[in-house]
Amino acid sequence: MFRGVILAAALTVASAVPIWAVQPDEILDDPVLEDRAREISKELRCVVCQNEPIDSSNAGVARDLRLLVRERLVAGDSDEEVVDFVVARYGDYVLFRPPFKPTTYALWIGPFVIMGLGALGVAVMLVRRPRRIDAKDVALSAEEEAALDALLADKDKGRQG
Amino acid sequence: MKRLLLFLPVAIVGVLFGFFFWGLNPDRDPNAIPSVLISQPAPEFDLPPVEGTETPGLSVDDIRAAGEPVLVNVFASWCVPCRAEHVVLTRLVEQDGIRLMGINYKDKPTDASNWLDELGNPYERIGSDYSGRVGIEWGLSGVPETFVIDTNGTVVFRYVGPIVDTGAVDEIMTALEQARAQAAGGV
């Protein structure tokens, strides 16, 4: 009985095939080109459902863009050329990884600047913190020693009395 | 110096406050995708007419040859908001005399011609973009979308969504007027 349940569960999991947005008629015959197309598609944002790459989006425009990516690859474009082609029409917005250029300097460098400022703050705090007190620097003077001895002697007396 | 440093937390809170306040602005649409086409020449394209209509097709040369700023509206018969803005576009053409050209996006010609027969055809020219390929050239994310093209064939304004409220109409008219003024200025 128990074995049967496990077997049924295993079969269910094994037979569950993920459903791709990429439809069979889109897939290129050349597996190398198709792999490149899939990699590029994963980096491009769908302009309709904005947090999904076109690779997994079912939107009509996403399908058109997937076909376009494949069309450009078949025409002999490099990966960069394909991405540039799409960016020329839809802007940097379609890239999941924003490019490094003057308008995005704050985005890329900002976190490091903030971390640097934080590290600087911690460093300043550590440097300015009072150092550990050295016993030799604050030794008692002869008078203080004598006064202390007198006090201790008094205390001993008190205990005896 | 030390005194000034004491005000640093206040300054940081001030900056954060400004940032969050900006984020709360109800007019800001975080999903808006800035168009790269603005201030760029209109993309090259040449579309055939919609079969079953008398209206000629549309190419980028037709837009350039218009001699005045043109409104390019991307529509489809299957698009419900397009139906809503259709009456507004018609009014703009009939009352304000704007030049309106259409791109029929991913639409069956029979559906498109039926739609135009039913609602009327305010378009001077309509190009049939059945494959949606020209839509990509325009950086289209959906329909309806409307572009204002100046006399040089440069895209000066893009409106995403239906032109139904007065705010949208005002934006379109302002863009058109600016384009006209620029053309009159001989720039």
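The mean pLDDT of chain A is 86.
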